[in-house]
Every structure is written in C-alpha cells, then in structure tokens.
Amino acid sequence: MTDTRRRVKVYTLNEDRQWDDRGTGHVSSGYVERLKGTSLLVRAESDGSLLLESKINPNTAYQKQQDTLIVWSEAENYDLALSFQEKAGCDEIWEKICQVQGKDPSVDITQEVVDESEEERFDDMSSPGLELPPCELNRLEDLAELVASSLPSPLRREKLALAVENEGYIRKLLELFRVCEDLENLEGLHHLYEVIKGIFLLNRTALFEVMFSEECIMDVIGCLEFDPSLPQPRRHRDFLTKTARFKEVIPISDPELRQKIHQTYRVQYIQDMVLPTPSVFEENMLSTLHSFIFFNKVEIVGMLQDDEKFLTDLFAQLTDEATEDDKRHQLVNFLKEFCAFSQTLQPQNRDAFFKTLSNIGILPALEVILGMDDVQVRGAATDIFSYLVEYNPSMVREFVMQESQQNDDDILLINLIIEHMICDTDPELGGAVQLMGLLRTLVDPENMLATVNKTEKTEFLSFFYKHCMHVLSAPLLANTTEEKPSKDDFQTSQLLALILELLTFCVEHHTYHIKNYIINKDILRRVLVLTASQHAFLALCALRFMRRIIGLKDEFYNRYIMRNFLFEPVVKAFLSNGSRYNLMNSAIIEMFEYVRVEDVKSLTAHIVENYWKALEDVDYVQTFKGLKLRYEQQRESMRSILRNHRFRRDARTLEDEEEMWFNTDEDDLEDGEAVVPPSDKLKSEEDLMDPISKFMERKKYSEEKEVLGKSGLSGRQSPSFKLSFSGSTKSTLSSPPSSASLNPGSPGSPGSPGSGSRNSPPAAPVPATKVSSSCVPATNYELVSPPFSCCH
C-alpha cells in the first residue's frame, strides 16, 4: 500500500458558502476494501480518529489551487478541501489522484462535471481548443459575446479559462482598459466590464492570482466600475486610494504580511461592494473567490501570531497609561479584528492563539480598556471579551479568582462587566443583553471542569456569591424596598428582567449557593414586589422566578415561602388582573395547578388555609377547587393515621437527630445537595403535612397561650402552623412544620433578616408540660420537630 503521510487541514463548505474547519491530521492514500478502490484517508493528529475517508472516483473533478490546496465535490452540495502544510505533500497526493483518474499531474483540474446534451458535447469534443479573438478595441464586442456564450457550458468554461490563462490575456485586457479610459471610450469600457465579470465566474484560482496581484488589482476594480446598467460609473478606486487608509497601529516589519493584508482587504471589497449580487445560478461560480479570502485570513493570523515582538508591543501600548485615547482606540479595534480573524483557524491553532494572548496579558489589558469612558472602545473590548468567554470560560474564571486575592471587589473584571451591564445607556439595552449572556456562560456549571484535587464549580461559585452576587442584585434590592417598584420606567424594567433571568438560571443550576442567598437576603419577597409593575413582561419574570423555585419541590424553599406568606403578592396580582384572559392569568393559574398536580402537600395546605376565601369563587378553571379537594383528602388521611395509631415517635430520637443537624458544617455540603435536616429526611409524605393542625388547635388556643406564658420562650403571635393531639394522657408536643430558624445570616438556614416581621407567621410555642430542658435549645432559634406529636 502506498502511504504518503502529510500534515493537512480538512475543510467542508457549509450552506452559507463558508469553509468549516474539520480538524488537522495526516493524509495518506491507499486501497480500501470496503470502498472497493483507492481512497484518501486523513487521521487526526490528536487521537488518530478518522477525519476523512474518501474514495478517488474516476469521474470526480479534483482541483488544485495555490500549490497547497486540493478541492472537490463528493455530492451535489458537499464540497471538501485539503489544505497542505507543505507543497511537496500536496504534489504527492495530486499525483496519486491523477494516477487513479489517468490524468497528467501538470493540470490543475482533472475534469469537469458535464451536464450538456450529447450534441453539445460532440461539438465541443470535435474542437481541440477555444480560440480567443485578438485583444483589440474593435474586437471587444466579439470577446464579450464569446465569454457570455461559454459560461453556461462547463466544458466551454474550462476551455475559455485555459485560453485566457495560457495566452496571458488578462494583462492584455487591462492594458486595453487603460487605453479605453484615456480615450473615454464608454462602449469599450462597458464590454470590458462584461468580460472581466465573466472571468470572475470562471472560478479559477490561477486567474485570481493574476487578477489580484499588486500590479493588476486596481485596474480590475476599474473595469468593474463601468457597469452598463448604471447611468454613471462607480468610484471604487477613489475610495480605496483616497478614503480608505491602512493604519499600522503597530509597525509591521514583514513586507509579505503587509502585502497579504492589502490584498485581502481589496479582494474582500471586490466581493462585498464591487461585484454585483450573484444570481442563484452564479452563486456557486464564486466559491473559489470565497476560498481565496478564507485562506488568506488564515495565513494572516498565523503570520501575526508568530511575530512575538508585534504582540508584545501591542499589549504594552494597550496597558500603558501614557498611550493617548485615540491611539488606544485604534489598538483595541485592531485587536478586535484580529480575534475575529482567528475564528477561521482550526481548533488546535485557535487554542494556541488564545493561549498566546492569555500569556501576553489580554485579560488585564481588557480591564484597563473597560475602565475607559469611550463607549466605542468599551464596546470593542466587550466583543473581545466575548471571544475569550465563548472559547475558554475556564481561563476567564481562573483569572478573576486569582485577581480577587489582590484587588478589591469594585475593580474585579467580572464586577466591571456587571456594572457595564447595569449602566448600559442604550434604550434597548443591546450591550446589557450581550453581557448578561457572557455572565450566564461564566456561571454555567455545565462548562466547569473537575479535577482530582479541586472542583472549579465549588471554587468559582463560592467566589461569585461572595464577591459578585451583591453587585448583580443591587438594582433589584434598591428598587423593591416598598410594596411597588420605586422606579418603573421601561429601561429599568428591562434591566431588572435581565437580572431576574440570570437569577432564575442560578436557581435551576446552583441549588445550594443560590438557596442560601435567596433565604438569607429574602430575595423572593423582593422579587415578588415586581408583580405590581405596570410592565407585564417584568411581572411575568418575577412569576417565572417563583415558579422555578416551586418546581424544585425543595421543602426548605417551601417553608421559606409559607413562613413569609409569599403567595400573598401572587394572589393579589391574580385578583388585580381580574377577568382578563392574558399571560399573567395563565402563568398564575399554572403555578397553582403545578402545586395541585404534583401534590406538594405543604404548599397545598398553606394555600387553602390562607387564601381559600379569596379564590373559592374562581370557577372557570377547576384548579382551586382541586386544591381544596387535595386538602380535604390530606386531612382525611391524617385522621385515619391517627385513629390507627400508626405513628409513635420517641422524643429522644428526635433530639438526637436535631443535634446531628445543628452540628453539621455547611462547608461539608457540596453544591447540589438538598439542605434538609435528618429528621425531615425520615418523614413520610404524611408526616410533612399538618393541615389538620389549625382545625384541632382552635379549640385549645386559649390553653396554649397559657402554656406559652409558662414556658418563658418568646414567640410570634398567633400560632398558625402548630399541630397538637391529645391521647390518653394530657401531655403534648407541638411544633411548626418548618425547619429550624437559625441566627439571621447563618448559611444554610431558612431564616432571613426579616423573619421576625409582623408579616411572618407565628412560631409554634413549646408547651412546658412534659418537655425536659434538653428539648429546648437556646432562645434564638426554634425547636425542629415533625409536624405531629403522639402521646404514649
């Protein structure tokens, strides 16, 4: 088997006629039994996986371009390209292809796909070549007709291209163009426009290399100025020579690199501005032009990346305080375009590119730029930052965590990003939306790494909630101090909606950290203030935030909601909406319907006991009546349990469990673990429910008040969630269904700084009867116990 290993990049042409990089590997040719023929094989240099396996078909047209490219089509809409690192490797594979197809390796294209009629094919085959008319003024019309008639036929196009290439016809045409322009021969200039446009559609790399050379390209652009369909010629050359200016923000010492940059800019200008928009039939004829620009950009990025002095000077001037603002503006725009060009690199080269930028100091440079007052400069810096985050978010996280050890929170890079999002002056908040997307990528646990020694997720989220979350939530907390939003204009509402979207994402993905933050800072209460906003989209964002919390079915969240009566603003919003059938109405009903369908017992009891009077008349949906039915079923189930004496608990077992819970260090909990006391984990679903409490307590309320006075503990006023049963003896053990309320600010506790407010529900008193002192912890928290008590 013949094995000619050479390093190549594999490209495929996508639907937008852009080349997609499929990877780098080593190409070989050999006989493949499965394909029954000699094939091209490319194996990835990273892991040896097969990147390409393509049989060399006798009838496939292979094209050799720029000495290091081989391009061909495997199907009607599937184009492939191999870009060789060395010309020698390209020549060897080209010889193998020509050997299989029986062609001379000196040709640049093996054959064309022919779809002509038999008569046309016979006529073309009978003539050995295409003879071009002399390049004279009086023959320009004949030449234009010849080019136009040859374009529909693939064989005639090939013969025309060979004739133009072999006779050096392009240079002769450009000499004739200068004559016509001097003589102001408008008819001749119109014919030359048609001829040059037709040569573009021949789609030949060899012809492009002549046309885009330094001495020819401006005359080619001149020919394309005289479009016969326009009343006046365009002035493209004036723009390129007088208006467009090549600015070397950092001097480029390599003349080849400078020439390549000039060429790429002009060819891109021809494609975008000079050539008329191609028709559906002409679009595929310009694929080689797209490829020419693409590979030029790859080459430019590679040459700049290899020039260490150039990049060092660039970042030194970016971070130098003495650099003038205008100069820094040019530098950052160059860096932005440089990063945009890097998107054409293959993954391995792009990895090396961004690693080089990181080592030189791109992130500290961005900090300097983001601190500037120039909006355009900050916008360019944001675009550069987005390239870095999309490429390697872990690199950005590592930088900001290291930075926090040396700098104050105010000047951290990630806090600068948050502040720019908050202070975006665009009425539509276009920049804020972009920055919010970048923050979401940075806090997404799905793209965080885990190693044997450390977990990026744990470290970064701890950093983010300690140093950054207060900056992100500041506008929300500042705007929700009253019963209604203090500022309710459109731009502020848009900003708060963006912040809520990110917080909702955190609820879904961060569990432990966000749970502590929401409960300790009473975030949900603040968010629900926004349901009173005049902007429906903001009110819906607030509802969505609460809906995500309820959807977790986490008892800590549920107790927090019940203890602070957080369904109250939702019910108010529902009633204020009236009979309007809109998104607000549907969203609120869906929230209650979820509680009913999922049978969230604690919330079901809370809703029915506290809000049934306000909701009982709603009969156009069966949601609320269904909740009441669930509630009645739970009460009946509880009665049945108590009648059968199925549950008997020893208070000492309860004390042991509580002691274990209070002694648990929050740091031992990994993010994502449910923060639930051991006693709660042992409860059955029936245990979590105490809806019958109030029903039975009303008869003994006066007795409990007396007991509360004797116990010496301070509690809230009306014990709404206490459940006590009497058996054969008169001793009782009562407690709320919620878990312990630790000192305010204690991580992991469901308590909040406002837990003692007048809106908070009562804490169940602990009767002094038959309760030993060991059952009563310090007076600054309440006893944790199951929502039932049994008497022995």
TrEMBL record:
Residues 143-633 form the Serine/threonine-protein phosphatase 4 regulatory subunit 3-like central domain. Residues 720-746 have a biased composition (Low complexity). Residues 662-688, 704-776 are annotated as: Disordered. Residues 5-101 form the PP4R3 EVH1-like domain. GO terms for biological process: DNA damage response. InterPro entries: ARM-type_fold, EVH1_PP4R3, P4R3-like_central_dom, PH-like_dom_sf, PP4R3-like. GO terms for molecular function: protein phosphatase activator activity. PANTHER family: ATP SYNTHASE GAMMA-RELATED (PTHR23318), SERINE_THREONINE-PROTEIN PHOSPHATASE 4 REGULATORY SUBUNIT 3A (PTHR23318:SF3). Belongs to the SMEK family. Regulatory subunit of serine/threonine-protein phosphatase 4. This is Serine/threonine-protein phosphatase 4 regulatory subunit 3. It comes from Muraenolepis orangiensis.
